[in-house]
Design goal:
35% of the residues lie in helices and 15% in strands. Strands 8-7-1-4-9 form a five-stranded mixed sheet, covered by helices on one side. A five-stranded antiparallel sheet has the order 3-2-5-6-11. With 370 residues, it is an alpha+beta fold. It is built from 13 helices and twelve strands. Strand 2 (13-17) and strand 3 (20-24) form a beta hairpin. Residues 319-370 are annotated as: Disordered. It comes from Maudiozyma humilis (Sour dough yeast). InterPro entries: AAR2, AAR2_C, AAR2_C_sf, Aar2_N, AAR2_N_sf. Residues 325-338 have a biased composition (Acidic residues).
Length: 370
């Protein structure tokens, strides 16, 4: 079990633990959360915050992934945010927990109603080593203890490199608060389309998935692939993180475009993606779901016959591809069918035009799905 005590949670805050959130008024602070379950020493949870409450108009959210341990949440005025600190002395923490419970306001980890998607389903393969390997911490956020800082605005290594190229500055610090180190997925790269195998590799990404992404980046471990897919989805779900949304889409899309995937893996992925889509809030369905990719997955991809749960879940998201047919917009194959998450065209980033003053400010005006 893990426990978290709040020493000064005296700001109006939306507080979340995993997929569950509550509004905490400033005049009724929460004392802590106890008995956070762990199946082993490597599984993880996440605590996240939004200042002023969900209705305050502030969209920025941040939080901490953490492994089994005893923690305090304290407010750091220099960072203008709450920080998570681990207590290594079990006796000292036990005394603090007893005192907090005596004062009241310490609640148990919330129970999930029957039929709801469980946290263990959404994070079944996600482990603390994977979280560490996929998240780079900035110096001011680096700390002892088993917790990793994340936020809405955290960018991926792919986004950071792309933005630096668009801004024409290798020294531009576009990622001051660390970032996500996701596996690069580049459908149109030389790795993905081998010389002499262009026709084969364009239509079937099996070699790229199995030999490059799994074989070279993940040591052939399928569970590692699913863990990254889960981590990307949860950072999108809990933080509204755009780069994580791109990675989640890319990892699902790559499997759907590959014929040489064992049937049991596709079946398990279908169940996982269905559960993910069911917990996605409506506002994210409207803004972070790439409808074209999902329609292609269940209607035209190599795995389309093996995604019945995903197809049904998409209907709940307002995406209803025609049974056994094609959408009008999908009649022709083109490069857009293979989104490269490193390309400026895919991210639709507007950089400086030739007519602009070279010494003037450069504005990245928007980052959107095509």
């Amino acid at each position: 079990m893990s426990n978290i005590l709040f020493s000064d949670l005296d700001h109006a805050t939306t507080l979340g633990i995993d997929t569950l959130s509550i509004n905490v008024p400033a005049d009724r602070p929460l004392g802590g959360i106890r008995d956070i379950p762990h199946a082993n020493d490597t599984d993880v949870h996440v605590i996240h915050f939004q200042h002023g409450g969900a209705q305050s108009g502030s969209s920025g959210r941040y939080g901490y992934w953490f492994a089994r341990g005893n923690y305090y949440v304290v407010y750091d005025a220099s960072l203008e945010s709450y920080v998570l600190r681990e207590e290594r002395d079990p006796q000292r923490y036990a005394a603090a927990l007893r005192a907090a419970e005596a004062r009241g306001g310490v609640g148990a980890y919330p129970r999930v109603d029957a039929g709801e998607v469980l946290w263990c389903e959404l994070s079944s393969e996600l482990t603390w080593p994977v979280v560490q390997s996929l998240t780079r911490q900035s110096p001011e956020r680096t700390q002892e203890g088993r917790c990793v800082y994340v936020e809405t605005g955290l960018v991926t290594a792919e986004e950071s490199a792309l933005l630096q190229r668009v801004l024409h500055s290798e020294e531009s610090n576009v990622n001051p608060d660390g970032g996500f180190e996701y596996t690069p997925i580049r459908f149109m790269s030389r790795e993905a389309i081998r010389p002499g195998h262009e026709m084969e590799d364009y239509g079937d990404k099996s070699h790229y998935l199995n030999a490059i992404v799994l074989g070279q980046h993940m040591r052939g471990e399928w569970t590692r692939y699913i863990a990254e897919l889960q981590y990307a989805f949860l950072n999108m779900l809990l933080l509204g993180n755009y780069g994580s949304s791109l990675q989640w889409h890319a990892l699902v899309d790559l499997v759907c475009r590959s014929a040489a995937v064992p049937a049991e893996r596709v079946t398990a992925l279908d169940a996982l993606v269905s559960a993910q889509l069911h917990v996605l809030p409506q506002e994210y369905r409207d803004t972070l779901l790439n409808e074209g990719m999902w329609v292609h997955a269940v209607q035209r991809s190599l795995q389309r016959e093996h995604l019945p749960l995903t197809r049904e879940a998409l209907r709940t998201c307002g995406i209803s591809p025609a049974e056994g047919g094609e959408n009008e917009d999908d009649n022709e194959d083109n490069d857009d069918a293979y989104p490269d998450t490193q390309s400026a065209q895919y991210l639709n980033i507007e950089g400086p035009s030739d007519s602009e003053d070279e010494d003037g400010p450069v504005v990245v005006s928007r980052v959107t799905y095509r």
